[in-house]
Amino acid sequence: MRPRLYLACVLAVGALLAACDDTQQQASGPRADADGILHYGGLRFEPCSLAGSGNTTVRAQCSSLAVPENPDDPEGRQIELAIALVAADGMAQPDPVYMIAGGPGQSALETYPMLHGAFADVRRSRHVILVDARGTGGSNPLHCPLDEDDPVLALTGEEAEAATLEFTRRCRAQLEQVADLRFYTTGEHVRDLDAVRQALGVDRINLVGVSYGTRVAQQYAATYPDHTRALVLDSVAPNSLVLGQEHARNLEDALETHFARCREDRACVANLGDPREQLGLVRERLEAGGIGPVRYRDPVDGQWREDAPRFGHLAGLLRMYPYQPTMASMLPLLLHEAAQGRYESLLAQARMTYRNLGDSIAMGMSLSVTCSEDAPDFDTRAGDDGTVLGDTFLAMMDEQCGLWPRGSRAEGFRAPLEGDVPVLAISGEFDPVTPPRYGDEVVGHLPNGRHLVLPGQGHSVLSLGCMPKLFAQFIESTDAAALDASCLERLRPTPPFAGYYGWEP
User: Fold this and answer.
1) 3-class secondary structure per residue, 229-281
2) 262 in the same domain as 184
3) Which of 47, 104, 410, 491 could bridge 369 with an S-S bond, Cβ 3.0-4.6 Å?
4) Domain termination site, one of 340, 360, 380
């Protein structure tokens, strides 16, 4: 979850009228005025389209809300929060569903189109509300995009450190022209979410957090328990987790899981050998350096490029590839090709991963969150020697945070969420970033919580298999214990690719 990593209809007036609960008509809700303009509480909405990755778009209604950048200075600089409403298909219950994006640094409005299908059943009876966290998307975004020819990935050691720190300095200088970077943290995001709730005129909300968004959801429920109806936590980050602290070790465990599956697969091991051995060989060669430039085609724009393979390419690719099992299934093949001296695929995939991450994450917001909330708890002596990322990963984050302004975090920030709030936590079995033990930790403090682990899956699992139906059932009933989750047993891991033509060459 480090920096640089990334969702309907213009509705008929009748579907946007005040909805009903079990006993009485909702006092407030979306309504259209005589000019056809949609109002929800004190907010005015207009038709818009939400654009996700690829060509995915969702038609919605968009609005904004001005909030003070510094909560203690209401007369100071104001931030316009970007807000979207994806309205229910029919009569809606009074408690909408908030979707909270991950990162930190991802935009909720840009992320939602990829998850739109997962909300189909939920939207039969509830509106979906999206709020771009301050510093992301349309809410005073704190972007410091890397140039597409930025050499950071190709660098190692002192060169990589110097390039990263110089980028951090440039980024800070650029963003301080438009923002006070101390006030772009989880605490401010939580206050903003509640400000939107008040502006909508609703009493309680349901929160669906993804990855870092699960931290936000937990902090909201702890801060505003009377306004929290239920939580869905997808790929859980417990409040105790120091972002970045365990990433190198978690990644190593995930890689070993995937490599073991190749060793157990006849076609994979026969054609590609042991991927752990291949990784060791490739790493040794890349760290030694001296490999000449390799010509390859950019998988994003199709242009021919030329780079000298370096260890940074491998480390950057491995850091992000295991997020999705389908991508991870290609690792044995990529490592085999590189071990044979064919680096074209490794370079192409590293470049694609790097660019996609840069496009989806607001670097400045991510640094503000991590440096304010997690850097005070960094243990750079933890010792990740022997892992692919090594102990330089956390040390570099610590150095970056030494250059970044720091805000505050709430008292009791690290305390686990407790109380009787209904919680459904979900994890992927092979998630290298937020492994299932994190979900167990959170639910262990919640008597009305339940944790479901999706077999063979990775990071972000809300849309997989029968999970959308289970998610909708939980939002309706708020009874996680009553869910029949046996349908998840039909999920299977993606087998390792043994060749370019699929699992069986």
Assistant:
1) EEEEEECCCCCCCCCCCCHHHHHHHHHHHHHHHHHCCHHHHHHHCCHHHHHHH
2) no
3) 104
4) 360
Cβ proximity of 202 and 41 under 8 Å? yes
H helical segments located in 87-211: 108-115, 157-175, 186-200
pLDDT at 224: 98
pLDDT of residue 359: 67
Give the integer Cα–Cα distance in Å for 161 and 400.
Answer: 9
Q: Could you tell me if residue 3 is inside a domain?
A: no
Tell whether the torsion through CA atoms of 415, 419, 423 and 426 is positive or negative: positive
Which helix H or strand E contains 39, and what residues bound it? strand 38-40
Q: Are residues 238 and 282 in the same domain?
A: no
Tokens of 360: 């989806």
How far is it, in rounded angstroms, from Cα 233 to Cα 427?
9
pTM: 0.90
272 contact partners, CB below 8 Å, separation of at least 6:
262, 278, 332, 333, 335, 336, 496, 498
Half-sphere CA count of 379, side-chain side, radius 13 A = 10
- pLDDT at residue number 163: 83
**423-428: strand order across its sheet:** 31-32, 38-40, 43-51, 57-68, 78-86, 128-131, 97-100, 205-210, 228-234, 423-428, 449-454
**pLDDT single digits (tens) 190-229:** 999 999 999 999 999 999 999 999 999 999 999 999 999 9
Q: Is residue 382 part of a domain?
A: no
Banded model confidence at residue 56, pLDDT cuts 50, 70, 90: confident
In a domain, 58, yes or no: yes
Residues 195 and 257 grouped into a single domain: no
423-428 and 449-454 strand pairing: parallel
Which of 219, 238, 226 minimizes the C-alpha distance to 410?
219
* 459 and 414 inside one domain: yes
pLDDT tens track for 402-424: 999 999 999 999 999 999 999 99
Any idea what the CATH number is for the domain that residue 466 is in?
A: 3.40.50.1820
Degrees to nearest 5, angle at CA 77 with 73 and 82: 115
Q: Which of 326, 360, 394 is the last residue of a domain?
A: 360
Q: How many CB atoms within 10 Å of residue 32?
A: 16
104 and 85 inside one domain: yes
Is residue 369 domain-resident? no
The tokens describing 238, both together, are: 């417990």
Structure-block tokens of residue 433: 């970033």
